[in-house]
Design a protein that fits this description.
Distance between the termini: 19 Å
CATH topology: Porin
CATH superfamily: monomeric porin ompg
Number of helices: 1
Helix content: under 10%
Strand order of the largest sheet: 1-3-4-7-8-9-10-13-14-16-17-18
Radius of gyration: 17 Å
Oligomer: single chain
Low-confidence stretches: 5-29
Order of helices and strands: HEEEEEEEEEEEEEEEEEE
Structural class: mainly beta
Number of strands: 18
Shape: globular
Mean pLDDT: 89
């Protein structure tokens, strides 16, 4: 799950990931690892009961000249997910640190809490649908926080086609506070993933953010996903803006751990 400063973003491995990898022993559970990263489109699977996902990364985003130009780094993009029931997980997204290059400001964004509820699964287990209600917890950073509790709801679905293809789609509904007032936004996205080998996959994605006021932010992105063992995933990604309201480009990568 990615978070941009004004869009959504995700990405990259960090020292914390390295420490975790040295200290976490692989769990006996061998169900497929299903992180919500990389990309904007979240899957509909939930974390198995009693297990926890730690997902984190770092990203670099270049903005168009119409938005001031320059680039922004954000990290550590921490999402913690814990399985509560076979159809429900609890989610906490910790604040990101944003740093605008060329002498720009830096600071912390907002945290968020919520759940993922898998409300549908086909008998063969190949098709699933879920709801993701969340709400932000403002950090009140003058540069990067909305200063308000901002609600959001994502409706997601996914299916598999054959032994290697996976398809997923989301519709995100958010009501963020911008410049002291609400600006309701709709964010559709769709992604296709292809398994190259049992451990390596690739994906491509289209995403847009359509606010009530202001330009939309269409984006195309893709990347690679490596799963070296049942409880670890690495990812890298890159994306490009397709409109004046979107970033020019972004790159990054991350790591996801299950324990």
């Amino acid at each position: 799950m990615r978070r941009f400063l004004t869009f959504k973003s995700t990405i990259g491995a960090s020292a914390l990931a390295a420490v975790c990898l040295q200290t976490i022993t692989a769990h006996a559970d061998v169900s497929p690892l299903t992180p919500d990263r990389p990309g904007f489109t979240n899957g509909s699977d939930v974390v198995p009961v009693g297990l926890t996902h730690l997902e984190l990364g770092i990203g670099e985003t270049w903005t168009p000249s119409s938005a001031g130009g320059g680039h922004t780094t954000d990290y550590p993009e921490i999402l913690i997910r814990h399985g509560v029931t076979p159809a429900l997980e609890f989610r906490v997204s910790l604040p990101d640190r944003f740093a605008i290059g060329d002498g720009g400001p830096s600071g912390w964004g907002d945290a968020a809490v919520g759940v993922k509820w898998k409300f549908y699964q086909s008998k063969d287990g190949n098709t699933k649908a879920a709801l993701f209600p969340m709400a932000t917890i403002p950090s009140h950073d003058a540069n990067f926080s909305s200063g308000q509790v901002d609600p959001s709801l994502v409706i997601g679905a996914q299916t598999t086609s054959g032994s290697r293809w996976g398809l997923s789609a989301n519709i995100g509904l958010t009501d963020p506070t911008q410049n002291g007032s609400r600006n309701f936004s709709t964010a559709p996205s769709a992604a296709a993933q292809y398994q190259i080998t049992p451990k390596l996959s690739t994906y491509g994605e289209l995403y847009d953010n359509v606010p009530k006021t202001g330009p939309s932010s269409p984006i195309a992105d893709g990347g690679l996903i490596l799963v070296p063992n049942p409880n670890t995933q690495y990812d890298i990604e890159a994306g490009w803006g397709l409109g004046s309201g979107a970033p020019v480009r972004f790159v990054g990568g991350g790591v996801s751990l299950r324990f």
